[in-house]
Amino acid sequence: MTVATAFDPNSISLSPGAVRKVRELVSEEENAALKLRVFITGGGCSGFQYGFAFDEEAAEDDTAIQVDGVTVLVDPMSFPYLAGSEVDYAEGLEGSRFIVNNPNASTTCGCGASFSI
């Protein structure tokens, strides 16, 4: 498992809002072992879509990004699509959700949940 801690354009960063929300959700679940997994799947209106889940275990080949006590896991297939991105948390009229500000995306859909390269 690779661990990244400082800003690196070949890594993934977390906004303060995302860190705060992950901490809040982990606290609600009363399970300090939970880590936010960010991944890419095929589909969505632009070709790829972002996925988010909580996971207790990191796979051997995951990249773990640690920020202020919060860990984000990214599998090796998703990492190249997410490198240089920032994971954020937004609350707005369309609801509350994690979002990815991805410099690799050439287009995104209106909801921001899918993208193309």
TrEMBL record:
Necessary cofactors: iron-sulfur cluster
Cofactor: record remark: Binds 1 iron-sulfur cluster per subunit.
Molecular function GO terms recorded: 2 iron, 2 sulfur cluster binding; 4 iron, 4 sulfur cluster binding; iron ion binding
Gene Ontology, cellular component aspect: cytosol
Annotated residues for binding of iron-sulfur cluster: C45, C109, C111
Pfam family, one: Fe-S_biosyn
Domain Core: 11-112
Coiled-coil stretches: none
Keyword annotations from UniProtKB, A to Z: Iron, Iron-sulfur, Metal-binding
GO biological processes: iron-sulfur cluster assembly
Family label: Belongs to the HesB/IscA family.
Subunit field text: Homodimer.
Described function: Required for insertion of 4Fe-4S clusters for at least IspG.
Name this protein carries in UniProt: Iron-sulfur cluster insertion protein ErpA
Lineage, uppermost ranks: Bacteria, Pseudomonadati, Pseudomonadota, Gammaproteobacteria, Cellvibrionales
Gene: erpA
